[in-house]
Amino acid sequence: MPKKIMSKRKYLVPSFTRLCRPLTHILSNTPRLESRGYRPLQMDFEDQLNALIYFHLEEHTSARHLVQALQEDDFARNHVAPKDGISRSSFSEAINERGLEQFLYVFQELQKQACSIVPKKYSELGDLISIDGSLIDSVLSMDWADYRSGSRKARLHLGFNVNQGIPHKLFLTDGKADERPFVDQILTPGQTGIMDRGYQSHENFDALQLEKKHFVCRIKGNTHKTCLETYDVAPGSIVFYDAKVLLGQQGPSQTVKPLRLVGYTIDETKYWIATDRFDLSAEDIAQIYKLRWEIEKFFGWWKRHLRVYHLIARSEHGLMVQILSGLITYLLLAIYCHEEHDERVSIKRVRELRIKIQNETRELENVPPDPGDSHAQYLEQLHATT
User: Fold this and answer.
1) Model confidence at 8, in pLDDT bands (50, 70, 90)?
2) Best exposed site among 120, 137, 158, 372 by fewest CB in 10 Å?
3) Residue 244 — very low, low, confident or very high, per pLDDT cuts 50/70/90?
């Protein structure tokens, strides 16, 4: 049985403590991060985790910037950095070579916790998972991130829980990797994957139906279809076509299992949506596909406000650690914003949180704790003075 670690850090800044509170039980059950030699770790796993949460929360843009903050910023130095400090080389070694198993465990457990806390929208439409890929600009020395001659890119394959506005499951590959094979790995039976035209695969449509995994996928307008049965379309609806069909020319490329094809028009653009959801109206199918944009909005917000694509790692291991830490930070913010403000994550609330952390740090400099006080008593004293 693997050794476990107990959460060792006693956060003294109330707002940062509040943000990280969902990690308490998870950290106590996280597999232990072991040193690979005789030299003790300069950063244990909790040090790594806190440093990267701080990196994303404060919108740092490089490892150099982060390490400087860990050395010079009052909050980071006293409440985030390892007790004996950290050098840039030691930080780089830790991120690029250690902790991936632990970060993946924390992400999976925190994702489950967020699912039990954050309320669901669109529940009448089912368990909706938007699926998309996102390219990450890499440097030429990252040989594993193959894309094209003279260019290196990695690709993040992500499932995004539309109902609760939180990340669901992820995979990291080189930039040339096909996105379609990851649909089956992202979805679980009963869930509905929402996908754009790049995911059109008649073979996958058949396989998903056999596995009882649902899909709502836009397809190319010129895709050959064999109509088996048509359904009535309401007058005045945006929907102009609703039928049970087989997709593709007769032969190996044609779907084996019939599916539903919905056609509708918005702003003079025609959308053709393939799905196995016969339990909903055609208008509901159009609404589900519209919700695919939730993942696009997430990618945009996540990259812009948490700086997750500013590389602080060069190895595939390190980049996965960086991506996981960005998702963990977002999940913590999702729980925090719901419990504190009954809202979804917004930059307004993130900025308020940053200011509160800095203000409380300054208060700590002026209100030294009584050595006889417990941590809880000290926090109560600090709140009474602010």
Assistant:
1) very low
2) 372
3) very high
Residue 113, classified by CB atoms within 10 Å of its CB into exposed (0-12), middle (13-18) or buried (19+), is middle
Nearest alpha-carbon partner for 79 in 6, 31, 14, 35: 14
pLDDT digits (tens, 9 = 90+) for 16-28: 999 999 999 999 9
**CA 325 → CA 54, 55, 107, 186, 228, distances in Å?**
10, 9, 8, 19, 48
Examine residue 261 and state whether it is found in any structural domain, yes or no. no
- How far apart are alpha carbons 146 and 133 in whole angstroms? 15
Range of the domain at 66: 14-108+311-385
- Please give the distance of CA 220 from its chain centroid, rounded to a whole number: 28
DSSP β-ladder status, 192-195 and 214-218? parallel
Residue 121 lies in a domain: no
Whether residue 63 contacts residue 87, with contact meaning beta carbons closer than 8 Å, is answered with: no
| Residue 360 amino acid letter | E
Q: Which residues contact 148 (CB under 8 A, 6 or more apart)?
A: 175, 176
What contacts 354, CB < 8 A, 6 or more positions away?
57, 58
The burial of 262, by beta-carbon neighbours within 10 Å (0-12 exposed, 13-18 middle, 19 or more buried), is given as buried
Residue 37: the pLDDT is 63
Whole-prediction pTM value? Answer: 0.89
276 lies in some domain: no
Amino acid letter for position 58: E
- Total Cβ atoms within 10 A of residue 256: 13
- Give the mean model confidence (pLDDT) for residues 117-123: 95
Residues 74-108 have pLDDT tens digits of 888 888 988 888 888 888 888 999 999 999 999 99
Confidence at 110, pLDDT banded by 50, 70, 90:
very high
In a domain, 2, yes or no: no
Domain count for the chain: 1
